[in-house]
Amino acid sequence: MEVDAAIDDTDDSPKEACGVFGVYAPGHQVAQLTYLGLYALQHRGQESAGMAVSDGDTITVVKDMGLVSHVFDNRTLAPLQGHLAVGHVRYSTTGASTWGNAQPIYREAGDAGFVLGHNGNLTNTVALTADAGILPGTVTSDSDVVAELIQQAMVAADPGLRSDGRDLERALIEVLPRLEGAFSLVLMDDSHVVGVRDPNGFRPLCLGRLDNGWVLSSETTGLDIVGAHFVRELDPGEIVVIDATGTRSLRPFDAERIDPKLCLFEFVYFARPDSRLYGQTVHTARQRMGEELAEQAPLPPDTVVPGREAMVMPVPESGIPAAEGYARRSGIAFGQGLVRNRYINRTFIAPGQDQRSQKVRMKFNPIRENIAGKRLVVIDDSIVRGTSTRAVVAMLRQAGAAEIHLRISSPPYRWPCYFGMDTGTRGELIAANLTVSEIRDYLGCDTLAYLELDRLVTATGVASRGFCTACLTGSYPVPVSLGRVDDDLPTVDLVGPNG
Ligand code: SF4
Fold it and tell me: What domains can you pick out in the chain, each with its CATH number?
C-alpha cells in the first residue's frame, strides 16, 4: 500500500526515526502486547508499522505503510499466536518510505530465520556495504545492511545446520563491533528476543518485567501500556538476550568505544513527556527548561504601552511543559492561544490548498479572545526550518497579538543529525544560515531568545550524564564522513573531535 498523501511540509519539527518494541512472555497474547507497545511509541514514527511473532517454531511477520491503528486490527492480530514478538514503527531517515523498507526486516539463515527492527542511523553504511561485497541496489536502507551482515555471519558460521539457539547472538557479537553510528535494535529468532544499544546509547532502549515475561521498549511508555514495570535502561554497548532461561547480558564492544551520548533532543522534543530517560521524567525536565528560559530571557519591560496584559502560551503540543515552567518562574499568567487539530498527522492531505499559511491554519486555530491586545510570550521547543514558526507568528498577529516574544527551549539547531533524526541539510536549517536577530526578523516576532546549552543540560536534571549535542554544537561524538547525498557541506566539516 502506498501512502497517497501530501507530506506535511508545514511541520517544522525534527522528525524521529523509529520506535522498537520486543516481548518474551509465555502465556500472554504477545501480538496484542506488541500492538499496545507500538501504539505508545507511535510518536517515534508514523510512516509504517510492523511486528513479527514466533511460537517457538515459526516466525510470522505483518507490516504495512501507515499508523499502527491502520496496519493492525483484530483480524490481523488474531492469527499472530506465539510467546515472543518484536515490533517497529518507522519514519524514514535513510531509505525511501516504501513497503519494502517497513520493519521488522526478515532474513532466512539456514533453518534459522530472524527479524530485526532498528532505531537510529548508521554512519558507515557505505563502507560496510563495500566490505561485505553487497551489490549496489540489493539493500535499500542502513537497517537492511545490518540484517544482511547478520545473515551472512549466521550462514558462514553454520551453513545449512539447524540453529543451536546461539546463532543469532554469535552473529551479533561478530557484526555489531563493525557498525558505527546510532543503533538501538530489537531482534528475534524463533526462540529468543534480543535488545541492542550502540556504544554511545544515542537512542533510548529499556527493559521491563511482566508476570512471566520481559519487555523491551524504546521508551518507558511502551512498558507502562502493557503493565510491565521498569527494570532498567540497557547500557550503551550492551546486548540483552531474553529466552526461556531469563535474561543474559553480553558486551561485544571494546571498552574504549563505550561513551554514553544520549540524544539531548530526546529530552527536548522526541520522547513522550510521560517517558523517563536517565531516571528523569521528560515532562518535568521540559518544565525546568521553561524555568531556565524565564531566568535567562525574561519578558522585556512594558515600555511601549505600560500596563499591557501579558500571557505565556505554548505552541501546542510540544511547547506546553516549557510554557508551564516559564509561567511558573516568571509569574506571568499561562494561557492557551492556539488550538491544535489533533487529527492531523505528518501526511495530512491539504486538498487544493498550496499556501503554507492555509496548511498551518488546518493545524492551528487561534483563540482570539485570549490573544488580542496582549504581550505574548510564545514558547516552542525548537525551530528547524522556520517556516511553520513564521506562519504561526503571522497567525497570532492577525488574531490581534500586540507583541510576540518568542522563546525557544533549546539552542539554535545548526548542524544536521546523522544519528536517526531527520532535520534536513544545513542549507535548510535556518540557524545555520541566519543570526538570531536575522531569524527574529524573518519570523516577524518582536524578540527571540533560545535557551543556552548549559541551562538546557542543567534542566535535564542529569547534567553529569553523557549527551550528544552535535546538532547544536557541531561536535559529533563519532566521525560522520558518510557524505549524505543531500548534504550541501563538505563532509570534512562534520567530523567531530574523535574524527
Ligand atoms: S545530533 Fe542532535 S538530534 Fe541527532 S542525536 Fe545528536 S543531539 Fe540528537
Answer: 18-260 (3.60.20.10), 281-463 (3.40.50.2020)
Residue 358: how many other CB atoms lie within 10 Å: 13
Nearest-atom number in ligand 1 for the CA of 266 is: 8
Q: 473 CA to middle of ligand 1, Å? A: 10
CA distance 364 to 339: 5
Residue found by looking up cell 504601552 in the block: 305
Is pTM beyond 0.85? Reply is yes
Say if ligand 1 is within 6 A of residue 270 CB: no
Q: Where are the alpha helices (DSSP H) in 399-445?
A: 430-433, 436-443
User: Does the beta carbon of 417 lie inside 6 Å of ligand 1?
Assistant: yes
Q: Which ligand 1 atom sits nearest the alpha carbon of residue 264?
A: 7
Q: Is the CB of 419 under 6 A from ligand 1?
A: yes
Ligand 1 centroid to Cα of residue 183, in Å, is 13
Q: Which residues pair with 378 in a beta bridge?
A: 313, 406
Cell numbers standing for residue 106: 526478515
**In the structure grid, which three cell numbers stand for residue 154, read together?**
549466521
- pLDDT, one tens digit for every residue, the chain (499 residues): 222 233 344 455 555 579 999 999 999 999 999 999 999 999 999 899 999 999 999 999 999 999 999 999 999 999 999 999 999 999 865 566 677 788 999 999 877 699 999 999 999 998 999 888 887 777 888 999 999 999 999 988 865 555 667 899 999 999 999 999 999 999 999 999 999 999 999 999 999 999 999 999 999 999 999 999 999 999 999 999 999 999 999 999 999 999 999 999 999 999 999 999 999 999 999 999 999 999 999 999 987 778 899 999 999 988 999 999 999 999 999 999 999 987 765 544 444 445 666 778 888 999 999 999 999 999 999 998 898 899 999 999 999 999 999 999 999 999 999 998 877 788 889 999 999 999 999 999 999 999 999 999 999 999 999 999 999 999 999 988 644 433 443 332 222 222 2
SS3 223: helix
Distance from the alpha carbon of residue 380 to the mean position of ligand 1, in angstroms: 18
Residue nearest to atom 5 of ligand 1 (CA): 263
